[in-house]
Design brief:
12 helices, four-stranded antiparallel sheet, 12% strand
Length: 249
Amino acid sequence: MNQVIETILDHRSIRKFEDTALTEEQIKTIVQSAQAASTSSFVQAYSIIGVKDKQKKARLAELAGGQSHVAENGHFFIFCADLHRLQFISEKENQDFNAVLESTEKFMVAVIDATLAAQNAVIAAESMGLGAVYIGGLRNELSEVCELLKTPDLVLPIFGVAVGYPVHKPGQKQRLPLEHVYHEEEYEQNKDVYLAQLEQYDREISEYYNKRTGGQRKDTWTGQMSGMMSKKARLYMKEFVESKGFNKR
């Protein structure tokens, strides 16, 4: 055990922040930490857009489904899958990269690179005494988000991260059992084992909500997932991603 691991294991999503802006030094450190993340073949296929303007953050909060913490935080970072610079390089080097840039593989590279960078950024922020929460709700209305941020083709905002000083530290949700996530040598497919692990986890999550809400909520994790997966969401995504130049072949 060390301080880095303690910071990682202490993670929790923060959705209420003090009205204190991050300093330029803090922003720079968080971005540099993001850049230190691993990147596929040194491609660095991502960009980060920082938003300070209160009106713009308020609009992003609306587009994300009315999440107030998108508007009220110390700084809002938006992580984008970015192959645009490679397109620019193709013009600079007088080469045609289109077949490669439109591939599913390079789309995955860009999304993975951006995600690795974001997780580094969050860990860095938390190590500085700040809190953070990921905002996938930006994908509710990506067309308007892209217009607001003026992102060109081959740049796709995939999520935001709100960062700031926490007003309070909420309880931490227990994750799935390690044995349910970590498989050795091959994937565990014994249904009885699988079911027993999920039932135990359901009991733990139900107890968490029961204590947190004083008995007003006792839902299980599998019940939550059932409710979520029964609703169709963001079905425009495939068409929109392709319209931005990604994942065409």
